[in-house]
Structure formats: C-alpha cells, structure tokens
Amino acid sequence: MAGSSLPTLGNWLANELGLYSILSSPRDTKLLCLQRFVRLLAYGASTLILALYLSSLHISDAKIGLFMSMTLWGDVVISFALTLFADRLGRRKTLMLGAALMTASGVVFAFSGNYWILVAASILGVISPSGNEIGPFKAIEESTLSQLSPAAIRSDIFAWYTLLGNAGTACGIVVCGWLVEWLQSFDGWSSTRAYRIIFAIYAFLGIVKLALSLLLSEKCEPQAEKQEYQQVTELDEVEIESLLSSEDNDEPDRSSPKPNSKPSSSPKPQKKSSILPAISPLSRTILLKLCLLFAFDSLGGGMASASWMTYFFTTKFSLPEGTLGTLFFVTSIIAALSNLVASSISKRIGLVKTMVFTHLPSAIFLALIPLPSNLGPAMAFLVLRSCTQNMDQAPRQAFLAAAVLPSERTAVMGVVNVVRTLSQSGGPVVTGWLAGMRKFWVAFLVAGALKAGYDLAMLKLFLGYRSREDEEGESETKRRETANA
Q1: The whole model's pTM is what?
Q2: If DSSP states are collapsed to H, E and C, what string results for 95-151?
Q3: pLDDT by residue (tens digit) across 155-181?
C-alpha cells in the first residue's frame, strides 16, 4: 500500500514543481533557460569581485558607486534600443548581438585598469553590477517563452527559467570566490591579477552564450499577428473616421445600400508600417502603473545590490573571497529553490498575492541586515531574506505576460526592464555616497522601506485584477454559448 502511494506522491510533487512542464517544453524553451544559466553564471562571478576589483585599483567608494550607476545608465540606452526593435530585427540576432557585447566587456576588463576605459566598456557593453539581469536578454527571452508556452503552464516555465538563473548566479559566485582565493595563494599573484582572470572567464561565457543563440530555431521569432490583435491598432483611426463622417451627415445617405443588399467592396484600410511596436490603450494604462511601482522596488534593489552587499560584508566583517562566495552561494541556492514553491503557491492564491506575500518578508529582512554588530546575526538575516527574495519573479513575469496582448509582450517587457534598470541606476550612487560618509547601514534601511512600499502598493492596485487572457477566454466562451443557443 505504501509502495503504491510513492509513485502517486512523486507524480504529484513533479506536477506541483512544474517538472513535467519544463521536460515536455520545446527545444527552444530549454535552450533559452540554458542561456540564462550561462549568462547568470558570468554575472554571479563578476558581481562578487566587481567592487573589490575597482577598490584594488585605488578607486574611491563614491566613484565605485558612480561607476555602477553609469553602467546601468548605459544598459538603459542599449536595452531600450535593442528590445524596442527586437521583433523587427529578429530576436535571435538581437540575442547574438547582446552576447557579443558581453564578450567585448569581459575582454576589456581583463586587460585594462583605467577607470574611464572600464566605464566605457561597462556602458557600451554588458557588465552586471548587481548580479541580476542586465542588457536586452531578459525581455526578449521572456517574450519568446510566453509565445512558446501555453498559459496553463507558463508560471511553471518562468519558475524554472528563474530557478536556473539563480542557480547560475550561485555557481558563479562560489566558483569565483574559491578560484580567486586559490590564485592569490601563488607567489606573485595579486588580488587585481586574480580578478582579471575572472573577467577573462566572463568573456569566454559570452562566447558560449553566442553559440547557444545560434542554435535557436525560427519558432522564436514573433508570429504573425492575429486579426483581433491587428484591430487594436487599426480601430482608433478607422472608427474615428467613420464617426466623423456620420456626424457630418445629419440626414441618412439615401444612396447607401439597403440592409439586404450586399455591401460595396471598398479597399480595406492599410495598417501603416512602422518599426515601432503598437501598444493598445489598455496595455499602456497597465504599463504605466506597473512602471511606477517597479521604479520604487528597483531603486531599493540598486541601493542594496549584490556588489554592494559583498563589499559590505568584506569591509565590515573582513570575510575572505572564498568564505564570501560560499555564503552567497548558499543564499542564491535557497533563492533558486524558492521559485518552485512560488509556482505552486500562485496556482492556489493567485499571482498578485504570491508576489506580495513572498516579497514583503524579504524587504523587512533586508532592512535588518546592517543592524547587528556580529557576523552571525547579519548572516542569519541575509539567509532569511534569500528564502523569499526571488519568489515574486516568476509570478511577476507570468502576470505581466498575461496582462498585455501577445504582440505587445517584447516591447512592454523591454520598457519595464528599462524602467527598472533606470530606477536601479540611482541606487549605487546614493549607497556610494553613504558608504563614504560611514553610513552604509542607512542604504539598507531605505532599500527595505522602498521595497515594502512597492509590495503594499501592488496589493492595493492589482488585487482582484483579471488578465487580458482571462477576459478573452470568457468572451470566447460566451460567443460559443450564444452561437450554440
């Protein structure tokens, strides 16, 4: 009896964790998830030592903060341009271009120590100061995954997509930490030289990502818009023109065809060709609200980014790179596994509640990290924060994908990522200024407060919100019932 219940339990667990969903997904979906793992592997490695590398070059804390902000400002411009035109230029080509920029940045950091050359490489290329997503990749990949995945399993796919990214960050951090410590054990190896080896590996991983982009199929490119979605962009001009003509004619036109007669054929209004993607009015309203909320959350994230977090633990508690890498490896693994739990929770209480109820505790623990004077309690708060830190990511991605039309997803997600990055860019400057004044702890308190405010506002504005897909599904059901009646 007990033996027969094991397969049932295993099937239930695999279904709850979305394992069946990711295993049965198309080859392109698996390649996109693998690309994210490789990319975040590189980001995690560079994040651990970025601030330490700049400090080893005798750059002040204020200039380090400015460096991180300028990196994010450059990312805003590049990401906005590439994601805005990605569907026109080709998603695969855009991903290849981003991988090439990532490789170029790694090469410059591996061979140059000039502050302004490094700034230029980080602005024009792809270097992550936070360990999180940067560049045009995320918006394009999320839009493509939404296209490849049915709505019923989309939250599962995004959960595994997020999990693999967090796992890549964790592996990058721990490998980087112990590799740097091992290299420094050799005679004549300075910390600066060891850090440059990490950036050379970063460039190599960019090449690997470029190769994975070449393996993607034509199915990743945007599909032809359906008629009902085309009407969203054509409706305004066509209806306004017809309404104006009807208002100008107070009397009915006697030459117009009778109800029983066939309408005269007239040329269909042609949709104007534009390189800019069209976004419907309803999607614009939702996008504006979300951008305002995400701005507060991202500003807090920028003030307490992973690079600043590692710098804080190194300067306050004198942790060596190996121990530091192990600590953040543990927190990243916990954060990665929590994404699978978030997918299961969202199926029961909804996407918005999952986003808020999991993210709010992490904001509180973030504010508590700098308060203890001993390493133990500070590490405990860091680990507790990681338990729910990323549980809102997969539900947020699924919510955003369902809130807009399929043809709008790449542009909308690109705009959201640009807003998040632009808001995040203000954080490192503030933290650098506070660190220079020996008030590092204030940055964590403010960051926690901003993130908590975002959670409460998200709950207030979107609790009970019905997505576009839900509304369209209900409309289709009603049309079928009416037709059958």
Answers
A1: 0.65
A2: HHHHHHHHHHHHHHHHHCCCHHHHHHHHHHCCCCCCCCCCCCHHHHHHHHHHHHCCH
A3: 788 888 888 888 888 899 889 989 998
